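Task card 7
Instruction: Convert sequence to structure tokens.
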Amino acid sequence: MDFSDSSSSNVENRQNVKILECSPPGIYPIYTCWKPESLEDFCKGKFPEERLTHISRVLHFEDYKEVFDRSSIIPHQIRAETHTSLPDGYKGSWFGSTGKESVHNWYGNVSCGRNFQDFLNKFDLKYYFIEIVEFKTLSAPRFLLTTQKVPPEVDVTEYDPRQSGGPWYQDSNGQNFYTITGPRKDNGACPYELEFFLVLSNEEYKILYSMCEVKAVNHSNANSKGYRNCKKYRSGPRWDTCPSPWSIQDCQQQLENLRAEMMQAAGSSMK
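Output:
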């Protein structure tokens, strides 16, 4: 798996890594998207690992209502604020390795999650390594999982979790693992959080949602001081008040109300 030299003038190559994109001067958060020169001996066996059992997409409640109404995971186009080397306009849906519901989740209130291996088994997926996006205190190795043809402008590399030494791998029993602490681009190490960009057909997004377990998660610290409390409303240049700084119990009540409204509407339509 060789990430060789590129003719693009905005790509910097170093001895061991290829820099794909950096945050513009004066823009926060500061980040760098990069790839290791080779994944074959990158981090497997060198850094702490954990089982990867579930992935999830976490949304604010107002965004989940649209998912609920459509009964489908909703893909969105890549934009500049996504902090990725993927081209603007490429459409998919981000999922990540699932954390504990009780721990504050800066992505939002509602988790749509699924057993990772069940997801892999359900769809005829191709796997690609995108990048590692590195921030000040953590990094996110990113993978493209897709049933669709990858456009030529999408610069990704085929990935085999059974053979690669990368941050996600499968053992001989088919169990998935991921690196929870891994290398920085220059030196040292930092926490890793895996992210998966899912590009499916419209029908497959509906199937995926039908497979998901929907849970309330803790977003009660959304409006607290400090960083990584609310990605949508209090991150980078945007610093607004989050409209749903809810505990698990608060969000669970909102979900129950939403389902009750659906049942009531369905009952009214039957009359």
